[in-house]
Amino acid sequence: MGCFLAAGVSAYAEEVAGTIRYMSGTLVAQRTDGTVRVLTSKSSVQPGDLLVTGRKSYAQVVMRDGTKMTMRPDSNLKIEAYEFQQGAPKKDNAIFRLLKGGFRTVTGLIGKRGNKDAYKLRASGATIGIRGTDFTSRLCATKDCEDEAGAAAPTPKPKPAGRVMRIAGKVVAREADGQIRKLTLGSPVFEGDSLQSDLASHAVVAFRDGGRITLQQSTVFKVEAFKYEKKGGVQENIALRLIKGGVRVVTGLIGRANKNNYKFRMSGATIGIRGTGFDAWCNGPCADDDGNPRAALGGPHDILWSQYAEASVAGHLNDAGMQTSVTGQYTQVAEGPADPMNGAGVYVWSGEVVMVGPGGSFTVAVNQAAMLAQQTGKPVRIMNIPAAVLQNDAPRPDSVPVDLNKLFDEGQAEGDPGLYVTVHDGQVILEKGDQKVDLGKGESGFTNDQILTRLAATPGFMGGDAEMDNIDQNGSGSGNDNGCVVR
Asked: Which residues on adjacent β-strands are paired with residue 101?
């Protein structure tokens, strides 16, 4: 195929938005002035370009902010707007439109600095908002995208145990295999996740059964088990573990029929619920030891995690292993400083709980607090509740409104024509009119003229392309620096 440069047109006359890193087959760019340019590896692309891949062609475009876009065969992608200046984050702007086919995107700096809404992808009447992510999108004109690839069975994904409803600061989830993902508003939380919050950070998570927790600052909290179906059919249970820091908890439907199905654990202690709301903390020896409440003893006088405890017998050692006063109901440990928050404790603000330790159990009623005595491993009541408990700055989880039907609703697209989006990492916000679906890692969404929904399973045609995977991991190219302009 012959080519020529149109008279008076310079290949560098307009702003360069990105460069072709890899291509196989045919890729052309239709410019805003109507010219069509055949691209090769290392060719530049510009704002306004409509990129078109051939029937059996693949191409990867790397934008100036580091965004990588790997296009599938027979795809049309337009760069509607693009502005990136290294020293001006507030001016960032990237708007792409998928007109046909599909592509995989790993986002760069736009949307991660300055304005988080600066990166947008539009397709089929919907807008995809990006939160620093890796995702695949396909616009299917036929059922199961059969015009591009054969139908494949949907890929089952685990249902999320919960979703993030409110977040401040930095909170991440460590998965069972050690991978870490950043949590944002709407992010899913799965069985096996360990949630970790930074200093001056918190998050509210709503669970499928209606329960909620507030993760306070500098906290590590694990969802050890979660089984629940709205329509029944599974042996429901939930097991939560506070490893370090503090949480605020509202229980849901799990455990109301059988309280033994709900388990909340800290080092050396278990909280039995009675349909309730409570705060729990695990600091110092609780967060440092291996589950033995006596393991972190610092010496013969370090016998109590709290400086206040209920006195059972005047003049004798009480359950906490401390000398009580003759006349008072409680006393302060004489030997050195102590702190009620330095250990494992619980405060109830709705209903009641039973705190169980190696040395016994104690029922904690509303507006009461208890902690685990280190010497005996027995739960004892805290008579003077610390201000840090009574004046907790983290939001109570029941103060955050939740629409469970909307939050966890999942539909079946059944391969219908329309826009499909699958998130490999990060978060995507799929919007159409006044409807919105937040998609997290491992989730897929779908929209067409009638519906906008989160999918219960990811369609097979959204993955399994070995050529795409190879380009994403090892993409490279060679060839001329620039293509040709065709009138």
From this structure: 139
**Strand boundaries in 25-92, DSSP class E:** 27-30, 36-38, 44-45, 50-53, 58-63, 68-71, 76-83
Q: What is the pTM of this model?
A: 0.66
Name residue 299's amino acid: G
Q: How confident is the model at residue 461 (pLDDT cuts 50, 70, 90)?
A: confident
Q: List residues bridging with 128 in a β-sheet.
A: 121, 430
Angle at 287 between CA 265 and CA 237, to 5 degrees: 20
pLDDT score of 475? 61
- Residue 340 region, left (φ>0) first, then alpha (ψ -120 to 50), else beta? alpha
Helix (H) or strand (E) holding 98: strand 93-106
Question: For residue 25, how many other CB atoms are within 10 A of its CB?
Answer: 12
Predicted pLDDT at 337? 38
Q: Collapse the DSSP code of 390 into the 3-class scheme (helix H, G, I; strand E, B; otherwise coil) and give the result.
A: helix
DSSP string, 247-280: EEEE--STTTS-GGGEEEEETTEEEEESS-EEEE
What is the DSSP annotation of 317-331?
B-TTS-BPPSS-S--
Ordered domains of the chain (ranges, CATH): 18-156+410-486 (2.60.120.1440), 162-399 (2.60.120.1440)
- Residue-wise pLDDT tens digits, 147-188: 554 444 455 667 889 999 999 999 999 998 888 988 888 888
Round to whole Å and give the CA distance between 11 and 242: 60
pLDDT digits (tens, 9 = 90+) for 469-480: 788 776 653 333
Among the listed residues 87, 81, 8, the one whose alpha carbon sits nearest the alpha carbon of residue 46: 81
